[in-house]
Amino acid sequence: MKEKKRKNSKSFLEKNYIKSWNYLLESRNYILIILGFFMLSVLIGALIPAPEILEQQILKFIENLLSKTEGMSHLELINFIFINNLQSSFLGMIFGIFLGIFSAIVCGVNGYILGFVIARSVQISSIFVIWRLFPHGIFELPALFLSLGLGLKLGTFIFQKNKLLSLRNYLRESLRVFLFIVIPLLILAALIEGSFIFFLR
Fold this sequence. Notes:
It contains 8 helices and no strands. By secondary structure, the protein is mainly α. It has one domain (19-60, 73-199). It is globular and about 50 Å long.
């Protein structure tokens, strides 16, 4: 009986994991669009000086984020990073229903802030500081690209012949990918980033 349950559980996971990857392959063009837009936003943030008002807002946002994590234990830090990334990825995907506009905005904002942080870090230290930023994005950024790419695709239901059926299918498959691929990536991201930040304090 236990063996049968184990096989059923394995079959359930395998089936959903395969379906998730198949849907990602179908959605690859949307994910690539998000990736390209993100890279463009990073370049803009890194190479074009921000207006003073925007610069102050970004610095204030970063300071606020740092103050929230100050004094957190290792596990608290991991949990904070996971919840923060989970909310950002999930909302970026679900609100893509509005023609993908919200997904594109989330992509642009995140890319611009990353570019800004890279430029500032290089100014203060050296170009080699970029390697210290690498562990922060190794799993988090792919999870974000997948979520936002699916959000972008979700917004295209409006252009399909059977809008309601397309929306239902896109939403179901997007949630499947989020559960079986994005969440595991975000867990790994939180473990790596949380440990990296905690032990380098």
